[in-house]
Specification:
Layout lengths: L2 E2 L3 H13 L18 E4 L4 E4 L49 E2 L8 E2 L35 E3 L7 E3 L74 E5 L10 E9 L4 H5 L45 H4 L7 E11 L5 E4 L8 E4 L34 E4 L15 E2 L26 E2 L2 E10 L6 E8 L1 E6 L2 E5 L7 E7 L12 E10 L6 E7 L6 E5 L65 E2 L1
Parallel strand pairs: 1-24
Antiparallel strand pairs: 2-3, 4-5, 6-7, 8-23, 9-10, 9-16, 10-11, 11-22, 12-13, 14-15, 16-21, 17-20, 17-22, 18-19, 18-21
């Protein structure tokens, strides 16, 4: 092997590189805990700051003959076809910057960001050494909502505390509480500002409102740019629509738990059936004013239309509730394009109701019964017969505050869900006797961009009270204690509630459960999906994105080239010695250890 004479500065740099691992600092050395040519992470913004690799590799030594011709000689560690520094291969072809690959020769060097290897390499925002989701650093090496990641190698990610008045990690706000709808969400993400007329939704709030994308931050390089444009090489879908699955939609909700008799006017804990003294007649309206108050809460009508509801303003007041719970209602596609609806099962299972409850499928014979036995009506819920069933959306047993364990009682299944005669839950197979917590309210706020050329719909079925406001104006009024009732609105050019195309507005939904023994809830949204963007790289487009190790547009493999799935094939740093190309391979692309970032060893005189 040909010996190459290095300059004095080159020798010093090699020594410095080695000593930097021992945390020494020598004159002319540059030490960093971050791989060279990659970047450091600003712990306040989790933004990767790219490091100029020209400052990390020697550019002053005498270049071997042929340096820059694109042909790798024995006395070169790299040759990318030029004699420029700062691109991974030094101007003298004697050093490869850490975190870079300069194979095959004659082609531009490229940074090797191998998500899951524990090394944060640009454009990665973190790398915790695995490809798991939900641990702070995603499978694309992006900081997840609700977490912060340090600048270590590997990244150490910990949960942030929303509501501690300290903005950190992926938080874009922190107002000292974890209650949404006040400008800062329960995940400490900014909400649109609706203080004056139409709302203002800023890029980075995680709501796609008049934007190409919005992933909840203002960081470029992760698929959605700092000005909410889809970046080259990425596809941005809305949250719940990624990985080819059917879309889902999460709607934030605040539950406030009250006790019977609160406050002193029996607003909650109304007389139970058969006493109907507080029940509202079908179609009763007028319990609240036609416009929301300045705090975006209902204003009680004066005089109240229902003597059993005298303190409506208190129902949605945090200070008046016994317990407060923030949650999410997941909505699933209902079969109509753009429509989403909640369901009974935790994983989206539909409620099983009885279709035509007085008639079984057939009378001869019944499933499980002896020959000649006459089937009983399905309303008896005889498990030994076949009754036609119907799978239904919505939740006939809506009890989100059972964990509080207050005002417990048994529940009945409403007739709207295929239960003739309002049977008790324990009498409706395969359910059993369960005590539920009644007397609570639900509040939902949702933002959308109004477009007069596109209709949006909202449907609601529920009991007891239900009010829906659009742009602060009453649109659905189902107030009063009653069996489940239906309400619906369509927002279009004719029914625009004073809105202007292109502006952002809010929908407010208020619900109250004030009387045992039933509680149901069905919400259908159509044309309102503004969920956060999830951006993933498009393998095969020739652009390397977050989560991709490479992408040459062909991805057919070869040493130092890109293979299937935008994963590196054989390469320096994979821990396997490719004798045709390498003199060593220690499983990384660092300098200063037993094998340099080039996987080549050239002599020194």
């Amino acid at each position: 092997m040909q010996k190459v004479k290095f300059s004095d500065r080159t020798v010093i740099l090699l020594l410095c590189t080695f000593l930097s691992l021992l945390l020494f600092s020598l004159t002319g050395c540059e030490t960093s805990s971050t791989p060279r040519g990659s970047g450091t992470t600003d712990t306040d913004t989790n933004k990767v700051i790219e490091t100029d690799s020209s400052k990390l590799i020697d550019t002053s030594g005498e270049a071997p003959p042929g340096c820059g011709d694109g042909k790798l000689a024995d006395d070169e560690e790299c040759d990318d076809g030029n004699t420029k520094s700062g691109d991974g291969c030094s101007a003298n072809c004697l050093f490869v910057a850490e975190g870079w690959s300069c194979n095959p020769p004659g082609y531009p060097c490229h940074q090797v960001a191998k998500c899951g290897d524990g090394n944060v390499v640009f454009p990665e925002l973190c790398d915790d050494g695995n490809l798991d989701k939900g641990d702070g650093c995603s499978d694309l090496c992006k900081v997840e909502i609700g977490y912060k990641c340090d600048a270590g190698q590997p990244s150490l990610c910990t949960e942030t505390v929303c509501g501690d008045s300290k903005m950190e990690g992926a938080e874009s706000c922190d107002d000292g509480n974890a209650i949404p709808f006040d400008g800062c969400s329960a995940l400490c993400q900014k909400e649109p500002d609706c203080s004056t007329g139409a709302c203002t939704s800023g890029c980075g709030d995680g709501l796609v409102l008049g934007e190409e994308c919005d992933d909840g931050n203002n960081i470029s390089g992760d698929g959605c740019s700092e000005d909410c444009k889809v970046e080259s090489g990425y596809e941005c879908l809305q949250e719940g629509c990624a990985d080819g699955d059917a879309c889902t939609l999460n709607v934030a909700v605040v539950y406030r738990d009250f006790t019977g008799g609160y406050p002193t006017t029996n607003d909650f804990g109304l007389p139970r059936y058969p006493d109907t003294s507080c029940d509202a007649p079908v179609g009763a309206k007028g319990m609240v004013s036609s416009s929301l108050g300045s705090n975006w809460k209902p204003v009680q009508a004066s005089p109240p239309a229902n003597a059993c509801a005298k303190s409506i303003a208190d129902w949605y007041d945090d200070s008046k509730a016994g317990n407060i719970k923030v949650g999410y209602i997941k909505l699933y596609p209902d079969g109509t394009t753009g429509n989403y609806v909640n369901r009974y099962g935790e994983n989206g299972e539909k409620w099983t109701g009885v279709k035509n409850p007085e008639q079984p499928i057939s009378n001869d014979p019944c499933t499980g019964a002896s020959l000649g036995t006459t089937c009983l009506p399905c309303s008896t819920f005889n498990p030994n017969q076949s009754c036609a069933i119907e799978l239904m959306d919505g939740n006939p047993l809506f009890f989100p505050v059972d964990d509080f364990g207050t005002d417990l009682g048994e529940a009945k299944v409403p007739e709207q869900y295929g239960a003739l005669g309002w049977p008790w839950e324990k009498d409706y197979p395969p359910l059993s006797a369960t005590l539920h917590s009644f007397y609570f309210t639900s509040e939902i706020t949702y933002w959308f961009a109004y477009d007069e050329n596109n209709s949006a719909t909202l449907k609601f079925t529920g009991d007891d009270d239900v009010w829906v406001f659009v742009n602060g104006q009453l649109a659905v009024d189902l107030g009063g204690a009653h069996a489940p009732l239906d309400g619906a609105i369509t927002i279009n050019k004719m029914d625009n509630y004073g809105m202007t195309t292109g502006n952002v507005y809010r929908i407010n939904i208020f619900h109250a459960e004030r009387k045992m023994e039933g509680s149901s809830f069905k919400l259908t949204l159509g044309g309102f999906n503004t969920a956060r963007s999830e951006c993933r790289p498009e393998c095969g487009d020739g652009i390397v994105g977050l989560g991709e190790e490479c992408d040459d547009g062909i991805n057919d493999g070869g040493y130092g080239e890109c293979g299937a799935g935008c994963k590196l094939d054989q390469y320096c740093g994979d821990g396997f010695l490719q004798k045709e190309y390498e003199a060593c391979d220690d499983g990384n692309t660092r300098n200063g250890d037993e094998c340099p970032a080039s996987c080549r060893i050239i002599g020194i005189d």
